[in-house]
Structure formats: C-alpha cells, structure tokens
Amino acid sequence: MKVSLINLNLVAEDAIGTCIINQVHFFRRRGDDVHVYVLHPPHNVPTDIEEVTSVVTLRELIEGQEEHFRLSDLYIYHYPGRHALMESIRGIDRGTVIFYYHNVTPPELWGSDIGRDALMRDIEGSALVHYADLCITPSPFNKQDLVDRLGYAPDRICVLPLAVALEQFTPGDRDPKLVQRYELEGQQVLLFVGRMAGNKRIDILIEALARVKSQIPNTKLLLVGDDRSNPAFRPIVADARARAAELGIARDVIWTGRVDELPPYFRLADVYVTASLHEGFGQPLVEAMACGVPVVAARAGAMPWVLGDAGLLCEPGSADDLAEKVLTVLRDTGLRQTLIERGLERVQAFSLERYEANLAEIVEKAVTHTLPEIPPEPVVEAGREAEIQPAAEAGEEAQTQPAPVIPRDELVLSILSDEIMAQSDIALRGYVVRSRVPLLGPFIAWVRRNLTSHLREPYLDPMIERQVALNRRMAEWMQRAIALWTASIQRQAELEARVEALEAQIEALSH
After folding, report:
1. Which of 9, 35, 87, 124 could, after both became Cys, cross-link 465 (CB 3.0–4.6 A)?
2. Predicted TM-score of the model (pTM)
C-alpha cells in the first residue's frame, strides 16, 4: 500500500514531528511504501526519515508531479493549522483520506493581536475535515470540538492519544551540570515545558511562584521552551519578566529557551506546573509523569483527561489555587508518592506500542471502507411546532395537559433559537470530490473537481464558514438573552408574591 503523510513541516523535537516519524516507522514495518510531503525542509530528523521526505508546493501535488502522492492508497493530512498543502485534500479522487486534527488555539485565548488573523484562518480551515473519510485526534476534548463546532459525525472520529518514548522519559537523578548552570542546589523546582504563548498563561505561573515562595522560600520556576521565535511571544515574555521583577522574584524565574534534550530537565523538577487554558492533548504532562514528577495543571482542555487521577487540578486562571495545590504536593510526602505511582501507571496508556496497535486498527477500518455513511444534513425535529400551539388550537387532548411553566412567548423564542442553531451550518458538509461509484467514480470526481473547486476554494468556502460562525454566535446570544429574560420573569414573580404577602399582612394588622 502506498501511503502519503502531509504536513506543514517536519521538526524532530516537536510533538507533531514525533508523531509523523512514528507513523513512518509504523508503515515501514508493515511493508507499506510511505512518503512524507512538507512545505519546509525537515529539521533534525533521522537520515532514514529525511530520505522519504519531499519539500513540495501545492501546485506540484495537485498537478500530479509527485507520482507517489498521485497513486497513493492512503493519505494522512496532519492539521496543526491551515497550510498550503492542506488544500490538496479537496482534490483527492482515489484511496482513503484521514484528517489528523491536532487542535488549534482559539484566537480569544492567544493573548496577542499578533497572529490572531492567522488563528482565525486556522479555525476556519479545520472545516476541511469534511473532505476526509475519517478523522483522528489525540483526545476526546478535540473530538467534541469537531462535533460541536463543525458538525462532523462523531462515529467518524477516532481518538488516538499521542505516543511518548517511555524508554527515554524515565525517573532519574538531577543532572549536576544543569543544577550548577541554573543554581538549583537546595532548591525546590517548579517546571513548565512549552512555548510561551498567551494561552499558556505564564503570568499565572509567576504569580503562583510568589505565593509558594512566601511559604517555601527556596523555590524556583524553570520555564523551558520557545520564548522568541514567534513575535507574539515577545510581549508576553516581556510582561511576565516585568511582573516577576515587581514581585521581587526575577532571579527565581529561569528562562532556558529551547533545549536539545528534555528528559534531564524533567528530572530537575519537584512539581510540573501548567496554567494553560487550552490544550488539545498536553504531551509534557505525559513526559513529566513518565519521569516520576507529580503534576499540577489547570482544569482546562484535554488535561483532565490526560492526567486522570494521576495529578492535581486547579481552577483555570487562579494563581491562588495553583499555589495551594503546589504547596500541598511539596509538603505532603504521602500524596507526592501516590501521584508519582499513579503517573507511572497512567503513562502506559501513551506508549508507542499502544499507539501503533490502535493505529493499526484505525487504518484497517479506513482502507477496508467499513466506515459509517456520511450522515445527512441536520433537520429540524418533526412535530416541534406543536409545542407552541395554543390550547384552543391543539384540540381537546392538548387542553387536558397541564399548562406550560414557561411563558408562551419565551417558548417560541427558545424553539426559534434552537432551530437557528440546528440550521446554522449552511455549508454542504456532505459534499466530497471523491466518488465510490464503480467504474464511473473517477469520471464523477473529475467533473466535480473541475466544475466546483475554482469557485468553492477561493470564494465560497471562506464566506460560508464566516456565515456559519455568525449564525452560531447569533443563536448563542439569543439563548443567553432568553436565559436572562427567564431569570427576570422568575424574579418578578417572586417579588410580586412577596408584595402580595406583605399586603395580606398589612390588611390583617389593620383589622
């Protein structure tokens, strides 16, 4: 079987790069002919991976200049965000297509105006999932996002957690050289690993550190990860540094930037901490647990699911709660040991062996076409209009029913908002270029592609996705207005009842 893996880039050190490398090895061991297509040259990848990686343009793919791509039986499109090569998914007219959704940071959580428009395009671009036969995503949180936001059929989404190299991430002693470099001798170390983006809420970690240091002075915060490659990171880092200086803890916050090997840094930590407000998976959580480090994380995104009962959760955005949980772990040796043991057990669910076994089942399911049919467009539930009929119009049977608690006007609006939400997605989600019709399938696909793609891709698709988003926002605001109206009606009824009771008391006293 010929397999094509498509992504923006291939960087050995990041989670998606590791995922793609694991897939190359997986398909090779099966005896498949696998090739990787990227927009940018691969970085730090092994020689055997580089040999099967091609840097290409969208034109080269859609014009059939890459023979392996043109003749593939399975296409896996990795989606960390919208990139040019993703657009080729629209024209695949053979084989099986899998959309591998890694999640996109919501623009409102980005923390900067720099790059916000790109994130909006990434969000809109995730609708390309409808061109795929199947979707893979690393967490139930991501799955629900695709179902709620795009209406993608849940039975066509497979949850496949990312794999962690458990043979590399293991418990161990602190590296003396790193202890000396960062002056960590005799210090309690809080560790965070990741890019310094706005949704990671580094400012919360710094606020929490100040609170922890008031109880345990010999504590430092180690921030490991990219803090400068993206212009959006720089003002966030600058503000965080300034806040640390205001709190008098600037020397206790250590910024390492990117590092070549992560396991030695995890082994420096007494507690792994993250205040991130949005994670589609959270691979550092697994890496920390694998290294025997207890975890405290915000109750947000996929992190509660990744941790299970192997970590402590704090309220999102609360430095006080984060600090309290950290202090609990540092002081309670019994709890600390329990979390370590649970973490080492939990990470077995994220082993490479488990990943490959589950991937094998998904691939078998996909290429043998045992997938459920694409569901029809959502329709308004039949008979819903009867809910708003007046008793006089609904017949004798309706008149015998108890009167509705909700006022009729409010019920009408509620049903209307539900219908707007149900019909908000005006895109033709069931439309696909490919056709399964025997013999005539390739011709049908050719006609569809040549008659529609020049209109859909540059013009209609972006406009439709924006209209869908607007429709849903309108329905959400209407639902909120109805909720406020309901509350005000109930409050008015309570006040009227109290007034009547007072009037009755006054009348009784007057007699």
Report:
1. 124
2. 0.73
